[in-house]
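All the exercises in this workshop are built on plain-text protein records. A record pairs a protein's sequence with a compact description of its fold. The structure tokens are whole numbers drawn from a learned vocabulary of backbone shapes. Once this layout is familiar, the rest of the handout is easier to follow. An example says more than a description, so a record of this kind follows.
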Amino acid sequence: MNEATSNAERGTIQVPTSGGWPLVAAFGFSLGFAGLLTHWMVSALGGICLVSGLVGWFREVLPEEAEAEVPLEPMPAPVAVAAAGVRHLEVGEQGHRGRFPLQRHPYSAGLRGGLVGGVAMAVLAILYGVVVQRSVWYPINLLAASGSASLSQMSDEQLRAFQPSGLVLALIIHGIGSALVGLLYGITLPMFPRRPVLLGGVMAPLFWTGLLHSSLGVINPALQARIDWFWFFAAQVAFGMVAGFVVARRERIATLQHVPFALRAGIEANLESRPGPPKGGPQP
């Protein structure tokens, strides 16, 4: 205790001496195993290094531990704690990163736009069947053929006839696909606020048609040979125009810009809504 008190008065503290003998011992231990794969001389050298390292290490701690005096650092100044509440930064203020877009459409708008756009696309597809194929059921069965191996192997005459399984499968594929694409429209259109209908009615159909045209030859060559790509693109444009128009007309809602997850989940309360102290200052 007396020695510790004298060291504290001198502004120093005793710590164990940092030597390199443990490193020498570890290096010799590694060489010992490395010699098992190379040469016995490597193991012999490793043994010498291991013994030397252990002896030097033990001499630093036995019979008394070697210590060194280190000067103490001065105590830092106490940190002043502000009693003010939390103030959320505005978008762009002091480099604050915002979420873009600042406003978005509700998910229901995307689903509704997708379903309405799917009706417009179905009308154009049936018009293609009546005008070109002389059959209302041809485009329906052709859509169902994308998910049925038996329908994809049918001839054109069979596809022009009514197929109960084709009707059910086409309704499922078309309904789910239209809803999902409409939901995607509702999410992406706010990112292009100036020309939402142009994006949904022209750019997206061009991209989707080109992607499908280049990949369908590998996935299903028989189906690609039966698709009229002019009418297919026209149907995609009809879907995009109608879906984009329906989604763009819905009122947007603001995104949660500066609200942390704990506050959104209800774990914490907003400090700004808590009643503050009286104007005269905190009362005892």
Q: What stands out?
A: Residues 12-70 form a domain with the Helix Hairpins fold (CATH 1.10.287). Confidence is low (pLDDT under 50) at residues 271-284. The chain is about 60% helix and 5% strand.
